[in-house]
Amino acid sequence: MKPLAALPTEKTVDALPTPLRLDDARTALVTIDMQRDFIEAGGFGASLGNDVSMLAGIVPTVAALLALARRAGWDVVHTRESHAPDLSDCPPAKRLRGAPSMRIGDPGPMGRILVRGEPGNAIVDALAPCEGELVIDKPGKGAFYATGLDEHLRARGITHLVFAGVTTEVCVQTSMREANDRGYECLLVEDATASYFPAFRQATLEMVRSQGGIVGWTAPFRALATAWE
C-alpha cells in the first residue's frame, strides 16, 4: 500500500505588498500587550486621557486569530508590558514622561500601574493564554528587549511571525522592527491591532509594507481565515 502523503503545512496569505507563504511548523503568533491596563476603563491607558474602547474593539478579532493559530499548531506568544514591584527595570525617563494622572507604579483602580502580578497587568480574560503558551513580561516597548523571546523562537525553528495587539505604532511596531532586524519575516494583522489614534495605526500599516515590505507584510484577518479554511 502506498503510504499516505503528509498534509501540506504551507498556506498563502493574500497580503500587502505581496502574497506571503506561511508554514505552520515555522510560524508563531505574537500577541502584544492585550492587558487590562491598556484596554479597560480605569487603567493606565485611560489615565492618559485615551478612549480605551478603540482598543477593546479588536478583542473579538484577536480571539479569532488566537483560535486559528491554536488549530494550526503555531507557537503562541503573549507579551505584557510590565515592571518589577520595586521599578528597578523602569528608567525614570520612562516613568516621568508626560503628565498622566497616574504614573507607572502608582496605585490605580486595578492595582499598581504596569506592575507584575497586579490585576491591571493581566491579559484580558477573552485572550487568556492557554497552558504551554509563552508569556513574556517586557520592561520596554519591544518584545525582544531584555527578554528571552529570540532564544525561544530559534529553539523551535520559527522563521515567520504574525503580530497582533496594541498599540500599533508603539509596542507592536517596535517589536516588528526588532524581529525584522533579527531576520524574522513578519506579518501584521490589520484588524487585530489598534491605536488610541486611528491615524497613527494607518500610518504604521503603510510604513510596515512600504518599499516592498521594508518591515514586513500586512493583511486583514479574513485573508488568514480564508487561507486556513
Features:
6-stranded parallel β-sheet, globular, 229 residues, 9 helices, disordered N terminus, 10 strands
> What's the total count of β strands?
10
Low-confidence stretches: 1-7
Give a short account of the largest sheet: 6 strands, parallel
Q: Nearest-angstrom radius of gyration? A: 18 Å
What is the H/E order? Answer: EEEHHHHEHEEEHEHEHEH
N-to-C CA distance: 30 Å
Residues in helix, %? 25-40%
Give the overall pLDDT as a whole number: 94
What structural class results from the helix and strand content? alpha/beta
Number of contiguous helices = 9
Percent of residues in β-strands: 15-25%
Shape descriptor: globular
Major sheet: order of its strands? 7-4-3-8-9-10
Give a summary of the structure in a few sentences:
The protein is 31% helix and 22% strand. The chain is of the alpha/beta class.
Structural description of this entry:
The chain is an alpha/beta fold. The chain is built from 9 helices and 10 strands. Strand 8, helix 7 and strand 9 form a beta-alpha-beta unit. It is globular. The relative contact order is 0.20. The N terminus is likely disordered.
